[in-house]
Amino acid sequence: MSEVTLKKLADMLNLSVSTVSRALKDHPDISAETRLKVKELALILDYEPNTYAINLRTNHSKEFGVIVPAIVSDFYQSFISSLEEEARLNGYSLIILQSGDDPLIELQNLKRCKQNRVSGIFISVTAKTNDVSSYLKLGEPPIPIVFFDKVPAYEACNKICVDDIHAATLAAEALILKKKKNILAVFGNDQLSITQKRLKAFDETFIKYNSEAAIAIYHASSTNEAFDVAMKGLDGADAVFCMSDEILIGVMKAIQTLGLKIPNQVGVIAISGGLIPTFYYPQITYIETSGFKLAKMAFSKMLACVAGSAYIQELKIESVMVEGGSL
Amino acid sequence: MSEVTLKKLADMLNLSVSTVSRALKDHPDISAETRLKVKELALILDYEPNTYAINLRTNHSKEFGVIVPAIVSDFYQSFISSLEEEARLNGYSLIILQSGDDPLIELQNLKRCKQNRVSGIFISVTAKTNDVSSYLKLGEPPIPIVFFDKVPAYEACNKICVDDIHAATLAAEALILKKKKNILAVFGNDQLSITQKRLKAFDETFIKYNSEAAIAIYHASSTNEAFDVAMKGLDGADAVFCMSDEILIGVMKAIQTLGLKIPNQVGVIAISGGLIPTFYYPQITYIETSGFKLAKMAFSKMLACVAGSAYIQELKIESVMVEGGSL
DNA sequence: TTGAAAGCGCTAACAG
DNA sequence: CTGTTAGCGCTTTCAA
Q1: Domain spans of chain B?
Q2: What is the CATH topology of the domain spanning B62-161+292-318?
Q3: Nearest C-alpha in B relative to A292
Q4: Which residues from B are below 8 Å from A98, CB to CB?
Q5: pLDDT tens digit string along B150-189?
Q6: In the CATH scheme, what is the code of domain B164-289?
Q7: Closest chain A residue to B141, measured at CA
Q8: Nucleotides on strand C lying under 7 Å from protein C-beta
Q9: pTM of the model
Q10: What are the distances in angstroms from CA B306 to CA A183, B41, B89, B123, B186?
Q11: DSSP helix/strand/coil, A102
Q12: Is the Cβ pair B93, A114 closer than 8 Å?
């Protein structure tokens, strides 16, 4: 048995293809009676419209492209998971592509999205992507793009990312509130803009509150470096701040190695996606920067873009503190 | 400037659409000269074939559907990541769908894949999926399906999953080799077939080697339950086995709470995807069951299916032990 | 070696 | 209210 098409339905009902087409989509021109007949038969025969014919005709698909540096990441995982739900609920599918943090592959992926005539693209750019102006001109008319998380610096485009300043400020305030006096603060690679933003806000918060805490700032580009840094820096500290999950993991290894008790001997607070902090006992207190909320915002922005009703905008998502027992 | 189509190229070169089409795909009928001319212009104008027209014509797409219970999972994450690479290298795109472990949504997702005329479907079924015979008849001709990880029990279909028996056997052998005498073994929910398989193989290995170790078997359906179980069961144990990452996390929390030293006071071994064990110090020794290898196998099986050269097959992927310092 | 023509399944302007 | 018609961009027979 072959595919059920509009033509087949039309023939069976002695109607024209266009009438059937219109009946199926509740076009007001069609009489209630005809509409009913058509819909009934369609249901019985399990008619499913041919997506490709529709796409060819309308020149766009109900698909969105998603390009990330890597899928293996708590953050992107939560983002994609959340985005998939939104998409499904709205009748869209998601095509997932990873760039491996390589600008060349990123460009290929963009092209691919264009070839697939996606309705829009969500992208978190690579560390080395410095000019996205060509991305924004992709397609005719240009395909809507929503940048998220790792967003380009200068271009006027839709950006949705974590409010790094707010997150770091919250963490600093928590440490001040707990009257910590000797703080080890471990940040990521100091070349990254995310590090710079978080560090600046962290620092300024202590100044703003006239805190007298001694703060030792360290940088670590990996979990292993964070471990090394913590092994040295934890001595005498009554609290440690970790800028990211990656760093938290290294620091926690050091704490375990040194046999320090949390929170009595040392307090811990991190900025995190929320999964890693639950792996420890007591659970780590953290400032949440998960992809879930970001995905919801990004998706509704995208829908607005597709509908043509969007203005260019940069959105920052504020975090909340999730209390564990570590501070 | 609008899209470049075959017709446009044809007009510019004073050729017919069909000649251009053939030239572009190196059809032997076309003269070298014409072929060159066509390809050159195509390159200059950055011609890109319209995917939807091709799909409509050929009635299938270069897309695969991937359906999983949830994207948020180390295992599926590694699987999808690996699959995406394979797919991209072979000119395919991936449509990712999650079922939320709900058979109804799973079915909807399958329908969706069919509507998108995917070339094939990779699926890890929900815990409640008990009849996949309808899945196998989806489409005309039926869409190739490769089941992975959580595979249906009885149907004759392509299945690719972790060799649970082998993994549990390796873990048991490691414990025996280390001459552990008092082993706490924490398994998952005893209704799950994965638990039953791992438990049986674990048990039988100790019998096979005439081990005199005392083994206390516990079941835990969640990280929290694993924590509770370990808090009681760790007393007097010189080693603990964790059937999964979920359980490992709970057990490690208990070990931290009790302040036990690894590996001196208690040895730890787990079956794991490989990420979680690196979060601790010393790193946990584990039997690897990651999605990477599975994805590569699944993909090549799928390619064979698409090419029509596949026979139905059940594949089991053997694990390897990764030494940390925990045993 | 190339071209003409039909048609994949659908939509939408236009005509009745 | 319904039908006719043209065509989206491509592939593929068939004919020249």
Answers
A1: 6-49, 62-161+292-318, 164-289
A2: Rossmann fold (3.40.50)
A3: B72
A4: 81, 84-85
A5: 998 877 899 999 999 999 999 999 999 999 999 999 999 9
A6: 3.40.50.2300
A7: A2
A8: 1-13
A9: 0.88
A10: 59, 33, 16, 16, 41
A11: coil
A12: no
